[in-house]
Amino acid sequence: RTMDREAEVVAQNEAGRRLFDEGRFDEARDIFLRAASDPAALGAALNVGQCDLRAGRPHDAEACARRLIETSNGFAPAWALLGEALAATEHYAEAAEAFRHALSIAPTHGLLWGRLGDVQQRDKAFEAARESYMRALRETPDDVGTLASLVALKRMLCDWDRLDRLSAALRQTVREGRGAVQPLSFLGEGDDPAEQRLCATAWVEQRVR
Hints:
Helix content is 75%, strand content 0%. By secondary structure, the protein is mainly alpha-helical. The longest helix has 19 residues, at 3-21.
């Protein structure tokens, strides 16, 4: 692999990422695919699958993830992509297994713990989901989405242990504008009109970016 080829891969990834961020997933995929012709460009190959996922082709994303896993079994992002693809086709138990494998490689990755909790909750493994969310917050305390998910889940389970403290932290996060929380789930955190308005505004702004 020459330095020129390495620089070309970097440039292609940057160009693909710009298109991806603009929602031009198929165009981005074409560029990532060219970069992925370099066997060492695992990130580019992963990005091909991410484009498939965002473009509504989860089966293609799953195939991409499995190819990466076959050649690079210890590449945690490939297992995470597999988990996302399986979740998109509602194979939640298999998705959870993929996320657990990713976490066996990267055990301090808080966002992966949060995604594991999400698919466990969709699979109705509520107790396991609660533990995953709690671990996610230990690893990534500022993850507002996971905090909101944990608070809502603990209410559903009638688990009052430390719920007041967690709810207060969530409300403070909304007041300070440090993250977007789904407004319907936030209704359970009090009836302050100003807080509810802030929550709804932040949620809408995030969705239209």
